Amino acid sequence: MARKKQYNEEEVIEKATALFWRNGYEATTVRMLEKEMGINQFSIYSSFGNKQGVFLESINAYKKRIRSITDKLSKSNNGKEGIKQYFYDFLEFAKEDDKNRGCLVTNTVNEIKEDGDPVIMEQLMDFANDIKQLFVDNLLQEKGNTVEEAARQSNYLMNSLLGLSVSSKVFDQSQLNDTIEFTFLNI
Amino acid sequence: MARKKQYNEEEVIEKATALFWRNGYEATTVRMLEKEMGINQFSIYSSFGNKQGVFLESINAYKKRIRSITDKLSKSNNGKEGIKQYFYDFLEFAKEDDKNRGCLVTNTVNEIKEDGDPVIMEQLMDFANDIKQLFVDNLLQEKGNTVEEAARQSNYLMNSLLGLSVSSKVFDQSQLNDTIEFTFLNI
DNA sequence: TATATTTCTAAGCAAATGCTTAGTTTAGGT
DNA sequence: ACCTAAACTAAGCATTTGCTTAGAAATATA
């Protein structure tokens, strides 16, 4: 046949994911991807088509990684306590060394503008809605909670989580802890 | 002496502000600024030095505009109700046509990375801290509230506000209203 | 070993970026 | 009316962007 690939696609995508997470989509150049992934531009384009292709694969890799905590939430039957734990788990998940990168998906939603790529936008929306649905499921475990009430609470909680994704880049851990505790005080 | 400027610097900065607000800092090119401000690149550079100079002036213009609602908050003596009103005022302030642009400052904090311009970063941090201080002041109007408690509550509220700056781009008004009402339920 | 097929290297492309500059137009003081 | 200093126009600069391509290197099969 022919020559073998000298890299593992999953491995190099993991590295790309880290770069996009740290840096955002637009600010990450193909030259930076080259260095971080450790492969040539030709290999990048032959494996993933284009920069957007690398990013979409990175989103998938991110989803796969975050599944460890979303799975935990979907299996939880502890009502709002399970969701609170998810908030703490998320902060831990988003931490790199001593600094926090926020959520890759939220970061991208924030970055992509109205003229942003619709393919990417849809991916991101689906992701956010999946998490919101998990919130609803868990909120309905609280006895006496109606579907309407759970929906409203999930909006509130998603807002807090989005806020946390931003706050975590700026504030310190104790401030974030206060915020989480307060968030769950009155639901 | 010499020829007179054919444009008003305040006016063209207003237009630049709108563009940065819609589009973010990096995504806004000097060519776009030319068109939006209605003046030539030479004029841009001679009046404001460089792209960053235009942006810093835009931040100032933004601060001046948002002062209408921060002033209202600083004059309020209605405790947490005054802050809640600020949240609603902010949503109205950030609206353009039927869509929401979020907060220019929050957008930029989200966009600027670790290697981002320190001058801009400091401007943005100062702005966020000013608002947080306003929260503390108003929270202390609630009788029996300690300074420590007010500080913790202000972290929580700032997190909600940051979340709202993101949420407002994605969710509809009724969802945002639910979120605000919930946010103020238990403080 | 020879061949076919894929992967690799590295050079290069057009377009876009922030910024500059050469040269023209305008206007106020003499 | 003339001159000087500022403001204009538009062309152009080097660099960076995402992406391509020509050609060399490697490897499974014949």
Describe the structure.
2 copies of one chain form a homodimer. The first copy, chain A, is mostly helical and 187 residues long. Chain A has a single domain (9-183), classed as Tetracycline Repressor, domain 2, CATH 1.10.357. Chain A contains 9 helices and 2 strands; from the N terminus they run αααααββαααα. A two-stranded antiparallel ribbon of chain A has the order 1-2. Chain A binds chain B through residues 22-24, 26-27, 99, 106-107, 109-111, 113-114, 125, 128, 152-153, 155-156, 158-167, 169-171, 175, 178-179, 182-183, 185-187, and chain B through 22-24, 26-27, 99, 106-107, 109-111, 113-114, 125, 128, 152-153, 155-156, 158-167, 169-171, 175, 178-179, 182-183, 185-187. Chain A binds a DNA duplex (30 and 30 nucleotides) through residues 1-6, 29-31, 39-43, 45-46, 50-51.
Observed structural traits:
Tetracycline Repressor, domain 2, homodimer, two-stranded antiparallel sheet, mainly alpha, 2% strand, DNA-binding
Compact description:
Two copies of one chain form a homodimer. Chain A has 187 residues and is mainly alpha-helical.
